[in-house]
């Protein structure tokens, strides 16, 4: 239970909406799973640039878990309806050898 309080303290210090921080704790044969749900606008703060903050939090949880011989894992739940859509990459049109030769002749 200390791991849940530890996580809650860290996350609430990072986010703008601390009242929206919810943590569910489950124990199974793999260890302890902490599922974190936060306000959608706070996702970037908890995940961090290239996931650095989330990775640091996971590392701290593992270290805290070692104190009690438990493996502690963190799952960060995505907000409802959050579908990541990435714009399609524009592939540049590559000219053929003939087109390049014609451009050189036209110079």
Describe the structure.
The protein is elongated. The chain has helices at 2-14, 43-47, 52-66, 97-106, and strands spanning 22-28, 31-37, 72-76. The protein has 107 residues and is an alpha+beta fold. The chain has one domain (2-79): GMP Synthetase, Chain A, domain 3 (2-Layer Sandwich), CATH 3.30.300.20.
Question: How would the blueprint of this fold be written?
Answer:
Blueprint: H1 2-14, E1 22-28, E2 31-37, H2 43-47, H3 52-66, E3 72-76, H4 97-106
- Taken together, the total number of domains comes to 1
Averaging pLDDT over every residue, what do you get? Answer: 85
Q: Please give the count of helices.
A: 4
What is the third-level CATH name, the topology? GMP Synthetase, Chain A, domain 3
State the separation between the terminal residues, measured CA to CA: 75 Å
CATH superfamily (homologous) name:
K homology (KH) domain
**Percentage beta strand:** 15-25%
DSSP strand tally: 3
Rg over C-alpha atoms, rounded to the nearest angstrom: 23 Å
Indicate the CATH class: Alpha Beta
Q: What is the quaternary state of this protein? A: single chain
Enumerate the strands of the largest sheet in spatial order, edge to edge or round the barrel. 1-2-3
Helix proportion of residues, in percent?
40-55%
Poorly predicted spans: none
The class by helix and strand makeup works out as alpha+beta
Descriptive tags:
alpha+beta; three-stranded mixed sheet; 107 residues
